[in-house]
Amino acid sequence: MGARLGQHFLFDPTILERIADAARLTRADVVLEIGPGKGTLTRALAARAGRVIAIEADRGLAKALQADPPGSNVGVVPGDVLRVPWPAATKICGNIPYRITSPLIERALAPPRPELIVFLVQREVADRLAASPGTKAYGALTAGVQLVATVERLFAVKAGAFRPRPRVESALVRITPRAEPLVRGADEEAATRQLIQACFQRRRQQLQRTLREAFRLRASAVLGVLRVAGLDPRTRAEEIPPEGFVALARAIPTF
Asked: Which has more confidence, 220 or 3?
């Protein structure tokens, strides 16, 4: 049943302990776990945290966890993690279903944001999340997440640590929401994300052309926007840091 829902269960005890340690848990923490599966990571989290609330989509697995929870401080919520309400939590952790990685990260970073997010994801996604401008892995996902958080790629996990064995390798990322996001409020965040998407749809195109085509700006307005944002007209999307996209989003409405 779990495999049908895209879950691959992690059984390596050393890796499980390392993931739990990466969350930097104390007894003051309430942890939201995404996709507990058979409860192997849940047990390691429960040994460190004050409370663990686990959301499991597979009804059979959820029922088994409710009948025999991996800790007296563990609560299990059956349901689709993208549909059910999320309880308030200080940390979010999980060996998440790879097919819904992007919407899960987006929801985890929606206000009110937790102190810390620790996700086991596909290795290529981990590389993208933690990438720097100018690198091949840097893209819209990178810039969008880094508007509101910093990302650390901690370590890789071989496919052999899972059952059933996935076709891809995995890596652990630690996402720390910024105390002061680069964007000011929901409206500016939405505008900046829209800009990021438009630019990366044309990632190899020079910025001056992208702004003309995507935002229908006159050539003189484009140069004005770029001057205010402090960006070279020949810059490409893959070279722009998150702060640069914010500066662009703030400059465009003024022209």
From this structure: 220
